[in-house]
Amino acid sequence: MSTPTSPARSRFGRRETPPGPRATFRQLLPFVFEHRPVLVWVAILSIVGALASLAQPLLVSQVITVVEAGDPLGWIVWALIALVVVSGIITGYQHYLLQRTGEGVVLSSRKQLVAKLLRLPIAEFDTRRTGDLVSRVGSDTTMLRAVLTQGLVEAVGGAVTFVGALIAMLVIDPVLLGLTVLVIAVAITTVTLLSARVREASHAAQAKVGDVAASVERAISSVRTIRAAGATERELADVQAEAEGAWRMGVKVAKISALIVPIAGIAMQVSFLVVLGVGGFRVASGAITVASLVAFILFLFMMILPLGQAFGAITSVNQALGALGRIQEILDLPDEDAHDRELAPLAVVVGPANEGVRPDAPAIEFDDVHFAYAQTSPQDPADPGNDSADAHDPEPSVTERQPVLRGVSFAVPRGQRVALVGPSGAGKSTILSLVERFYDPSVGEVRMGGLDLRSIDRAELRAQIGYVEQDAPVLAGTLRDNLLLGNPTASDEECEHVLQSVNLGGVLARDPAGLGAQVGEDGIMLSGGERQRLAIARALLAAPPILLLDESTSSLDGVNERMMREAIDEVAAGRTLIVIAHRLSTVVDSDRIVVLDGGRIIGEGTHAELVATVPLYRELAEHQLLV
Q1: Three-state SS for 92?
Q2: Who contacts 395 (Cβ-Cβ below 8 Å, separation ≥6)?
Q3: Phi and psi (nearest 5°) for 601?
Q4: Three-state SS annotation for 449-476
């Protein structure tokens, strides 16, 4: 008896692509019906074109009858030419409308997906790969275009053509029709059985494309590190392996599609041979006329053509549903604030610096806060891997890591500067993330002005907080773009003043574009210290009542650190600061210092008090807090 084996993994521990979520046709309809007026017009054109096509065999039959009788053709030829021209014009205009509408479907799906991505909880980004998310916006949404451009709406006119041809063929010769329907029934049954495999293979192929995008994004974003480590060839091999995986899945889709696409052609050829053979015999026996046989054959071609369109539509729709499953997985995720009303039904909007709410309450207060990062286990290729020993014993959908904060309680009075110090991993940055409500406590409360943060509107909460992250991110674009991120109404004079205050005047001077100078991807055209000062300048320009600075001077030399402290001191007047301290000079300027270790507070007080009473703080101070 064979033992179950674990799912196959890549060299980075990721599982091979699982089936993933499946979208239904009903979930596809909103994207299509968003363009209902145009689609109705296309459907009308399709029906008119179908009627024009159905009239052509009747006129051809009439032409044959007239010629056999030796009468002049007259208006019949001109009518036939007019029908052909009208059909061509309708087909061309209909194609343009469908292509334009298909692009509209892609646009609307991308808008929805990007809007959802930018509103997801921060925890979702902790467990998903950026490249895969970008692939869903770029590649997966493109697949939806095929729904409109490859036969779905045209199937409306095709249905009219099919039914009309079927009725005409029934009138001409029921025997020939019966033989034709038998061949077509076999073709339809085969396509139906294969269509489900197309959807599954398409989803897996799109997932592999997401893997490729994630690998490329990883390699490009770390290209300097990779080259410095001499790992270019190894990284290239990894990306190429992912690309080959995507190629294999694409070939699998092509193989299945290759079985479906020729079915309509085979059905047409077999039907034609049957009709030609049996029809010739029936003409010889006098059961039908030559004109009727010719008309029947023309109607046969007209019936098979929309059938081929229907088969193409089935293939394209199933491919689109495979991609839509990945899109819908993201769209179905709750927004960051989806459960805010459940947490606090009477959410309030608090005024600047919480004045007038509870003037006696601290600006920020932690009350017995416990927190552990939740690690989700998404069932898609972004899954970092199933750690279950048994493939039939899946890991839980959510698991919790080692707790980060354990019963943290402290208060930050209004207008004061509080420094958080402690070894790496003590929970300092997590405290700032909780203040920003990137996460909510597992237990306990974080309060602002005496109010639980969960009762405060998120937008209003964050409008009162300036946050400079540890890695000081800089957005691709210009200096002005970065500065205006938190204060879009600031003038150029204000932007230049805040840059001068953080000693970035040299950056302005070295580029003729001034504030319009490009900073490059992730601010690569700036030094590490310049990126950090630009991030601080962005927060200072917004001038919020509360500033959160996460090791904001760690990349600065002595001169720039002094200028930075002066700039912060200037803007800090009358404001509340929570600073994660990296250097002793930052700590000694604080009104109060909170020492953390292992997610717990082990001491609070001034610099002098802590040096005397807390051994860990004394050790950190002796090493200038360079941890």
Answers
A1: helix
A2: 377, 386, 387, 388
A3: -85, 125
A4: CCEEHHHECHHHHHHCEEEECCCCCCCC
Cα separation, 332 vs 128, whole angstroms: 15
State the angle between helix axes of 290-331 and 36-69 in degrees (0 to 180), rounded to the nearest 10: 170
Gap between the Cα atoms of 367 and 444, Å rounded: 6
- Give strand pairing partners of 84: none
State pTM to two decimals.
0.67
pLDDT in tens, 456-507: 888 888 888 888 887 767 877 888 888 888 788 888 888 888 888 877 888 8
pLDDT at 387 over 70: no
Q: Summarize pLDDT for 133-150 with one digit per residue, the tens.
A: 888 888 788 878 776 666
Asked whether 450 and 389 are in contact (CB, 8 A), the reply is no
Please tell me the distance from the alpha carbon of residue 501 to that of residue 547, in angstroms, as a whole number: 17
Task: Give 528-581 as a DSSP string.
Answer: HHHHHHHHHHHHHHH--SEEEEESTTTT--HHHHHHHHHHHHHHHTTSEEEEE-
Task: Find residue 592's DSSP bridge partners.
Answer: 418
Listed in sequence order, the residues at least 6 apart from 105 whose beta carbon sits closer than 8 Å to its beta carbon are: 31, 32, 34, 35, 144, 145, 147, 148
C-alpha span between 540 and 301 (Å, rounded): 73
Burial of residue 8, with CB atoms counted within 10 A of its CB: 0-12 exposed, 13-18 middle, 19 or more buried = exposed
Lay out the sheet containing 465-468: strands in order across: 465-468, 546-550, 576-580, 417-421, 592-597, 600-605
